[in-house]
Specification:
Layout: E1 23-24, E2 36-37, E3 44-45, E4 62-66, H1 70-81, E5 85-89, H2 98-104, E6 107-108, E7 120-123, E8 146-149, H3 155-159, H4 163-166, H5 172-180, E9 185-186, H6 193-198, E10 210-215, H7 218-231, E11 234-237, H8 260-269
Parallel strand pairs: 4-5, 4-7, 5-6, 7-8, 8-9, 10-11
Antiparallel strand pairs: 1-11, 2-3, 9-10
């Protein structure tokens, strides 16, 4: 994958490979491009495109989204279109989200308010901003709230060097868990933001894209996989959070537009060694 100009270098640290099996669902086709990364938001960025109508509906939920960049904004668009009650926040305040709220019907709120009563909270902010999130952020969330982490570590391009990641060998999402004091499910971190709008397909379609999902809480992981299915994508179980290095930047699955078979293969082929482009 070709890095965007100014993109950071990765790790020299080698972690032990996990032998945990990778499980998957419906098979689809692989068509891989190389993404560019938007340094201000999470996930590979794409040019604007057409909104495709969502397929299918699940049980409506209250969902909080913290971060209204490429990934957060497009998840707001899709999840409100599916009928979910979405509360969206960013670091600049609800008054800056008026246009997104008018477009989608989502409720703009403060960061502290976004998780209140939410069954799912998506944290989609630059990694360097995670320690600045309010303490006790999820205290008012619904019991058993599921937190989705879309984060990526770009030490040279954006985040600066994080010693716990590079020296202690923590995965990006394990580090995020320690900062926010709550378990997370890692998903959407290698997804083109525009694909959330443009590429949903019904279950069983041979061209349906699959997304890797990692996490230690199996019930929370199932909830996220079900939500992604509702959004129009297949999923592959990428293991626990300590296995989530398999889907970090510059791994074979990062930015891969492939089906279950291709994504499963890419996860299995990942190396735990950070490349020089992703070391601080």
């Amino acid at each position: 994958m070709t890095p965007a100009p100014g993109r950071c270098e990765a790790w020299s640290l080698v972690r032990p490979r996990t032998t945990r099996p990778l499980t998957s669902g419906t098979r689809t086709r692989n068509s891989p491009p190389g993404p560019e990364v938007d340094p201000d938001h999470e996930g590979p960025a794409r040019r604007p495109g057409r909104h495709r109508s969502p397929e299918g509906r699940g049980e409506d939920m209250k969902i909080g989204i913290i971060g209204a960049g490429n990934i957060g904004g497009n998840l707001t668009r899709r999840l409100t279109a599916l009928g979910h009650d979405v509360y969206v926040a960013n670091s600049r305040g609800p008054h800056t989200l008026t246009a997104l709220a008018e477009e989608t019907g989502a409720t703009p709120v403060t960061v502290e308010e976004a998780p209140r009563g939410a069954e799912i909270v998506v944290v989609t902010v630059p990694l360097k901003a995670v320690p600045d999130l309010p303490s006790g952020l999820f205290d008012g969330a619904a019991d058993g709230v599921t937190v989705i982490d879309t984060g990526n570590y770009y030490p040279r391009q954006r985040d600066g060097r994080i010693a716990a990641i590079e020296d202690e060998g923590l995965t990006e999402s394990r580090w995020t868990e320690r900062q926010i004091g709550h378990r997370v499910i890692k998903a959407f971190n290698g997804t083109y933001a525009q694909d959330i709008l443009d590429r949903p397909l019904p279950a069983g379609d041979p061209d349906r894209i699959a997304l890797p999902v990692a996490g230690d809480d199996e019930a929370a992981k199932r909830k996220v996989r079900d939500l992604i299915d509702e959004l129009g994508f297949d999923t592959v179980d990428a293991g626990g959070i300590d296995d989530s290095w398999r889907q970090q930047p510059d791994t074979p699955v990062y930015g891969l537009r492939g089906g279950v078979e291709a994504v499963t293969k890419a996860l299995a082929e990942a190396s735990p060694e950070r490349t020089p482009d992703f070391r601080g």
